[in-house]
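A note from the maintainers: we've had questions about how concatenated examples are separated. There is no special marker in the raw files; a new sequence line simply starts the next protein. For clarity in this README we add a label.
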Amino acid sequence: MKNVFMEGAISPDFIANSIAKHQSKTQIGAHDIFLGQVRADEIEGKTVSAIEYTAYEEMANLKFHEIREKTFSKFDITCMHIYHSLGKVGVGEICLFVFVSSPHRRTAFEALEFVVEEIKAHVPVFGKELFEDDSYQWKVNT
């Protein structure tokens, strides 16, 4: 079982290197990528400046693994990678990176949507929205 968590924001270099590593896998015809980015939401007159992510890591990694297995059994995909941030991630930075590869584009599109929706619905990752005035609230997934 893989640990999907990374401390802090997921860098553009990490994302680019992950994509580049797949050039040698010549059975792949399509990649689809989801990048979750922290928004500067305005909530009750306050602006979000960052989200601090925490998780029950062992339980969350198990859920990520179950989602991975379910996705491979449901879709004809070649590979899939999931990375999620822990700790503080600033506005504009990437907190979730999901990368799905398949021989065909339609399958990649459908599998990616399935994975992201499953993550949002079932993985125990919690976000504390930090406001510019140093107050906070717990984020509700939508």
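[label: protein 2]
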Amino acid sequence: MNVERKYSLEGTIATLLFVALIMVVLLQILGRTNLVAGPVWTEEVARWLWVWMAFFAIPEVERQNAQLKMGFLAEMLAAKVQAVLYLIIDVAYFGIMVHLSFIGYKTILRTWRNESVTLPTSDALLYASAFVASFFVLFRIAQRVWRQVQNLKAKGEGQ
């Protein structure tokens, strides 16, 4: 029995990053008043948190299959043709994500010696967000492709 969980690891990470982002932005706002001395690092941390959050939200959207798509042309096709079309699209998407993962890896290597402006870390940590999240995306695409193939087999056996 395949029960889809309500919460996923990547969705939880994206949520925690969002909460941290709210806290950092609140600290930025308070830093512009006379109440708190505003730290200079909040601007960069806010940007980094946003990037990591956005990249971890992508696999959560993939898990829920809630991405935006222009399906009105595909919906005119027969159900089996639709299923094959979406399978082809997902296989192509998987290949593109493998290539983007490789680009992310090369970017990490290229930026490893670049130092962040206000944080005591390498810029590679920022670019690692795409590389790390891409594995979650690949996992979710693979899951969807597996389900699509199983559904196509079941429909083929039912005829």
